[in-house]
Specification:
This protein is mainly alpha-helical. The protein has two domains: 8-37, no CATH class; 55-227, no CATH class. 45% of the residues lie in helices and 8% in strands. The chain has helices spanning 8-15, 55-86, 114-126, 134-148, 175-186, 193-220, 230-234, 243-246; strands spanning 17-21, 24-29, 32-37, 150-151, 168-169. The strands form two sheets. A three-stranded antiparallel β-sheet has the order 1-2-3. The protein starts with 7 loop residues before the first helix and ends in a 13-residue tail after the last helix.
Length: 259
């Protein structure tokens, strides 16, 4: 091929024709025929291949990568960085940077903590998607563990700062509840180095716990979980802790038409 850059207009009007269809993408050029079809594109079916990982090694990567891709991206990176080395594709070309938007409960809106969303991405790719299937069961376990556990647990081998980082129990999967409870306990503001390092250590803790569950799945071939999702309990999408946000005015659930 010529080293000259060809624009789309050049391809269409000058040297050939670009055709896009359901069967694939064909480029006809002066140099001959190149065909990139769906058959040629090697898609890896779900679930993706997996090999047992060291939770501490995953956590240390996630901790440091938080400072690059923040919470959700850090959890994914902690897991996929090692799988790139152990397996290669499809992990090698996975766009981890594109998940930075999970930070702050989705670009700072304080909804679901990004660490749990990062865990969900990894779990559903590795253990497989499907309603109430293995990937979702791991995700459900991670969320419940997150709400019930005083975090962060992980202490980095090479911390960015050496300040005391207290542990707090969120009682909720929501970012704004989790972060604000920690800021109150630590007496630190949102933009402080301590709060940032807390979230980095939190990401490391979630990544490590997710890998423990993935390792169990890899060894057993399935997820052993009796934990129900909240919708099965409350007949609506929900979390178990409503009072932190709603006080005594918890919305009533309309169950008309339910079986």
């Amino acid at each position: 091929m010529s080293k000259e850059k060809l624009s789309r207009r050049d391809i269409i009007l000058g040297t050939g024709k670009l055709a896009v269809g359901a069967a694939g993408i064909a480029v006809v050029s002066a140099g001959g025929l190149n065909l990139l079809s769906k058959a040629d594109a090697k898609e890896t079916p779900l679930p993706w291949p997996y090999k047992k990982l060291d939770p501490d090694e995953v956590a240390e990567i996630a901790y440091h990568d938080w400072y690059k891709v923040l919470c959700g991206g850090a959890v994914i990176s902690g897991i996929f960085t090692l799988l790139k080395k152990k397996i290669g594709e499809p992990y090698t070309s996975f766009p981890i940077d594109s998940f930075i938007w999970m930070h702050g409960g989705v670009v700072g809106w304080g909804t679901m903590c990004g660490t749990q969303m990062g865990a969900a991405v990894a779990a559903n790719l590795i253990a497989g998607p499907g309603v109430l299937k293995n990937g979702e069961m791991i995700t459900n376990e991670v969320i419940q563990w997150y709400t019930d556990t005083a975090l962060p647990i992980y202490v980095p081998k090479k911390p960015k700062i050496t300040a005391n980082i207290p542990k707090t129990k969120s009682g909720s999967p929501l970012c704004h509840v989790s972060v604000n409870k920690w800021m109150k306990a630590a007496d630190k503001g949102f933009w402080t180095p301590e709060r940032k390092d807390r979230c980095a250590r939190l990401s490391a803790s979630v990544a490590a716990h997710t890998v423990k569950l993935l390792n169990e799945y890899w060894e057993n071939g399935k997820v052993e979980s009796d934990l129900k999702i909240p919708a099965q309990i409350y007949n609506t999408t929900a979390q178990h802790n409503c009072s932190d946000c709603h006080g005594t005015k918890v919305p009533e659930v309309n169950t008309k038409g339910n079986k």
